[in-house]
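2024-03-11 09:14:02 INFO queue: dequeued item 60S ribosomal protein L16, len=232
2024-03-11 09:14:02 INFO validating residues
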Amino acid sequence: MSNTFEKVRITAFNTAACHDLRILLTLDIEPTFSQCVIVIDGKGHLLGRLASIVAKQALNGQKIVIVRCEELNVSGSFFRNKLKYHAYLNKRCIVNPNRGPFHFRAPSRIFYKALRGMVAHKTARGAAALDRIKLFEGVPPPYDKMKRMVVPSALRVLKLKPGRKYTTIGRISHEVGWKYQDVVAKLEEKRKAKSAAYYQRKKAVVALKSKAAASKADDLKSVNESITAYGY
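2024-03-11 09:14:37 INFO prediction written
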């Protein structure tokens, strides 16, 4: 009996650890993984689909960091998902609630619990897989300077039918007791402003380099032809 596996492509450029290494991860019959840490931007991903892919890759040995967990999406309207969460709050140990189950409020912990349910976390292999995964709200250093990737097979715009209702995990978390939505939003504004300034400086440097190369093109013509002859 043949098994069918969905192929998932994740491409990375210019990460601090990889030095211009292009990584192509294909989730197939024999998944491969990279020694480099893969940073995934959680914004716009469906929670369950992303969790299943990340769990499988972690079990195969891949180290993964997921940032902006507060921007993860769940299908269904906000009100519907809020009712589901409140129903989940009723599930507790009547004798001693300290025994669990524990109801996480932070978006990263909600996503962690979804991941944990997809891994045999009580075994050594499952525990090691969960240790390879890091989850964050916002984009803290040093991941703000690393290339962030997406998982196409988990993107809401590709996998959820147009017009369907959806909600953001950060909004649900805020409604049920997460206290740091405003703090994360303020830090994200600072990070985006800093990133935009860096991008403008980078564009200016690239423009100056292009201008300098164009002005010296005639002087370096013979040199460039010699280099081209050797295959460079």
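2024-03-11 09:14:37 INFO annotate: The longest strand covers residues 9-12.
2024-03-11 09:14:38 INFO item closed
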